Amino acid sequence: MADAAAAAAVPGDAPAGTTVLDSLGEDITRIVYPVSACMLLVVLLVSLLSSPSSPSPLSASIAAATGGVSGGGDDDIPTALITALTFVVAVTAATFLLALLFYLRCTPCLRAYLGFSALAVLLVLGGQVALLLLSRLRFPLDAVSFALLLPNAAGALALAALAPASVPIALHQAALVAVAVLTAFWFTLLPEWTTWALLVAMAIYDLAAVLLPGGPLRVLLELAIQRNEEIPALVYEARPVDPRHGRNWRLWREGTQPGADLDARSTVEVIGEVLGRNLDANSGNSSSSHDNEADGDVSNSRPRVTLVAAFSSSDSTVAQAGEVSALPEHRVAVAEMSVPLIQPRPQRSGEEAVEDEDGIGLSSSGAIKLGLGDFIFYSVLVGRAAMYDYMTVYACYLAIIAGLGITLLLLAFFRKALPALPVSIALGVVFYVLTRTLLEEFVVQCSTNLLMF
Amino acid sequence: MTLAAGLGYALIALGPAFSLFAGVVARKPFLVLTVLSSTLFWLISLIVLSGIWRGFLPIKSGAWWAYAILILTSVALQEGTRLVFWRLYKKMEEMLDAFADRISKPRLSLTDKMLISLAGGLGHGVAHAVFFCLSLLTPAFGRATFYIETCSKMPFFLASALIALGFLVIHTFSMIIAFNAYDERKKSDQVFVPVIHLAAAVMTLVNLAPGGCLIGTPLLLVMAALTLQHCWRVACQRLTEHRHQQHNSN
């Protein structure tokens, strides 16, 4: 039996042999947990703050703004399509502008812009959400304390989000998730058809922008690859933290397994390996399994695989209203460009230890990076599903996670830049429709009669 | 009846699942992924089922035989899906073993395989509990409670949570029994699992009669205990056999 053979092959190690199962899939779970946390927070916020009996003053103002534009204010399909289209056009323009700035090596501009947008989201949106929560939960907090706490918290989180090297990684990740949650909650305040149209339009845009030769994201990525630089952007990195060292700096995983070319923890490698694509790269490098190919050709080692989703939150409907004075700065493209989903380390000399170079046999660059735009749109979908019923929430959550998994599979298979939004959004929308039309009726019919199987 | 009650019902239905998750599944990331994919799989089977039955709903309240047919078809479909799940699992096991050989690490041990089947079963149980119980619990967080006509002694949410608990245990552990049976080709266990599933599902038909839930729910929990005991026996047996084989071969 296979078990006996396996047991015999590992001499005298019956109880505690670490098998492949121990660490496989770790990098995927490290990205699934924060995505789930973000979705959970948005669902909680939506269910707390969007009771139909008392529409929040914000949604009323947005409704008024939309109504003012479309001259009727009803939430119908043509209005939704027009809004979505406007949004996509704005996002495209913003991304081209960013690409231009990147091309001109205007990195301070980009960084300043990022900082400004993160701070704006945290201060303005965060402040308004906090106010809503305070009034809904009847939490006693006076105005002076609030005025002291809010700017401090917003500033600290913005700093944590933008300067990952100087802040504990947990705080950095929490700040990014906070930004995503706030932005996603705001998007859910749009009327229903508009939200769905927006999601579908962004998914299509993402697909086009990454895969078409003239797409802005593709241009941006190619520039980054050419110059071997990282695009300054708000991306969520799921890098493991080693608590042994007493400081919460990020540590690259050390792949010091003798004779092991592949790190079992990098699921993408596993998938690629299993699908037989890894064989060329490995056979060429198996002899130098420990070499720090510091200057090794990037092309020879694991090729860069990237997943991109970009967005910029230009709430164009509100922008046209003009009355809402606080909002133009969040009309500014909060370009959370999410760049490489799976990013092999760029060749950084100096501070980082040599172990994280790209050579085969060293630490897997299994640190999956997912852009904040993906977080936001996933959470918008789930938040909108929460406005209907919790059954749709669960179904859409599972669909989105499945979409993420499928995207990773495709990534390992195709090994080129892939957008992270389309598959998940498509699956999410399909499951939402199916649940709402088919499943709900069936399950409610069964379980209200206490009939289960 | 407020937050406490709602949380209480949710924990009745899902408490053991949380403990299993935190204690066993969360330690190995692969098992977390298995739980998620298993949940998705069973959700798809539920959607297919509801697609098939959509045309016949809503069922008139007197027609208990319609419900019986519904239960029969649902259980049949789900058992068929279990076989499909088994095939997928076998393929994945091959891939994992090949990968383990490649990086010269030991292959999947017996404990690993049982853990994967536990995670698969947990996914099934969680899917059931979430969709049949948790998604209807939202009103329980409000101010009042709800009784249905045929069950006037227990709040609806409590009955639903207890039944969901029973089914969670049944699904989780019957997956272990089933995978073990398919692996060892034991006919008796292969039959045991669908029979238990069918029996438990038919048991819930009792709930259609007035006052039936007072009989049905405890019986269901008894069946859950039965499944648990059988699974314990099967697992112990398998593990001691395995250890003997190892000793003999060493």
Automatic annotation (TrEMBL), chain A:
<dbReference type="GO" id="GO:0016485">
    <property type="term" value="P:protein processing"/>
</dbReference>
<dbReference type="InterPro" id="IPR001108">
    <property type="entry name" value="Peptidase_A22A"/>
</dbReference>
<dbReference type="GO" id="GO:0007219">
    <property type="term" value="P:Notch signaling pathway"/>
</dbReference>
<dbReference type="GO" id="GO:0000139">
    <property type="term" value="C:Golgi membrane"/>
</dbReference>
<comment type="subunit">
    <text>Homodimer. Probable component of the gamma-secretase complex, a complex composed of a presenilin homodimer, nicastrin, APH1 and PEN2.</text>
</comment>
<dbReference type="GO" id="GO:0005789">
    <property type="term" value="C:endoplasmic reticulum membrane"/>
</dbReference>
<comment type="similarity">
    <text>Belongs to the peptidase A22A family.</text>
</comment>
<dbReference type="Pfam" id="PF01080">
    <property type="entry name" value="Presenilin"/>
</dbReference>
<keyword id="KW-0333">Golgi apparatus</keyword>
<feature type="transmembrane region" description="Helical">
    <location>
        <begin position="193"/>
        <end position="212"/>
    </location>
</feature>
<feature type="region of interest" description="Disordered">
    <location>
        <begin position="279"/>
        <end position="300"/>
    </location>
</feature>
<keyword id="KW-0378">Hydrolase</keyword>
<protein>
    <recommendedName>
        <fullName>Presenilin</fullName>
        <ecNumber>3.4.23.-</ecNumber>
    </recommendedName>
</protein>
<keyword id="KW-0812">Transmembrane</keyword>
<keyword id="KW-0472">Membrane</keyword>
<dbReference type="GO" id="GO:0006509">
    <property type="term" value="P:membrane protein ectodomain proteolysis"/>
</dbReference>
<feature type="transmembrane region" description="Helical">
    <location>
        <begin position="143"/>
        <end position="162"/>
    </location>
</feature>
<dbReference type="GO" id="GO:0070765">
    <property type="term" value="C:gamma-secretase complex"/>
</dbReference>
<feature type="transmembrane region" description="Helical">
    <location>
        <begin position="169"/>
        <end position="187"/>
    </location>
</feature>
<feature type="transmembrane region" description="Helical">
    <location>
        <begin position="80"/>
        <end position="104"/>
    </location>
</feature>
<dbReference type="InterPro" id="IPR006639">
    <property type="entry name" value="Preselin/SPP"/>
</dbReference>
<feature type="transmembrane region" description="Helical">
    <location>
        <begin position="116"/>
        <end position="137"/>
    </location>
</feature>
From TrEMBL, chain B:
<dbReference type="Pfam" id="PF06105">
    <property type="entry name" value="Aph-1"/>
</dbReference>
<feature type="transmembrane region" description="Helical">
    <location>
        <begin position="64"/>
        <end position="85"/>
    </location>
</feature>
<keyword id="KW-0472">Membrane</keyword>
<feature type="transmembrane region" description="Helical">
    <location>
        <begin position="215"/>
        <end position="235"/>
    </location>
</feature>
<comment type="similarity">
    <text>Belongs to the APH-1 family.</text>
</comment>
<dbReference type="GO" id="GO:0016020">
    <property type="term" value="C:membrane"/>
</dbReference>
<dbReference type="GO" id="GO:0016485">
    <property type="term" value="P:protein processing"/>
</dbReference>
<dbReference type="GO" id="GO:0007219">
    <property type="term" value="P:Notch signaling pathway"/>
</dbReference>
<keyword id="KW-0812">Transmembrane</keyword>
<protein>
    <recommendedName>
        <fullName>Gamma-secretase subunit APH1-like</fullName>
    </recommendedName>
</protein>
<keyword id="KW-1133">Transmembrane helix</keyword>
<dbReference type="InterPro" id="IPR009294">
    <property type="entry name" value="Aph-1"/>
</dbReference>
<feature type="transmembrane region" description="Helical">
    <location>
        <begin position="6"/>
        <end position="25"/>
    </location>
</feature>
<feature type="transmembrane region" description="Helical">
    <location>
        <begin position="30"/>
        <end position="52"/>
    </location>
</feature>
<keyword id="KW-0914">Notch signaling pathway</keyword>
<feature type="transmembrane region" description="Helical">
    <location>
        <begin position="115"/>
        <end position="137"/>
    </location>
</feature>
<feature type="transmembrane region" description="Helical">
    <location>
        <begin position="157"/>
        <end position="179"/>
    </location>
</feature>
<feature type="transmembrane region" description="Helical">
    <location>
        <begin position="191"/>
        <end position="209"/>
    </location>
</feature>
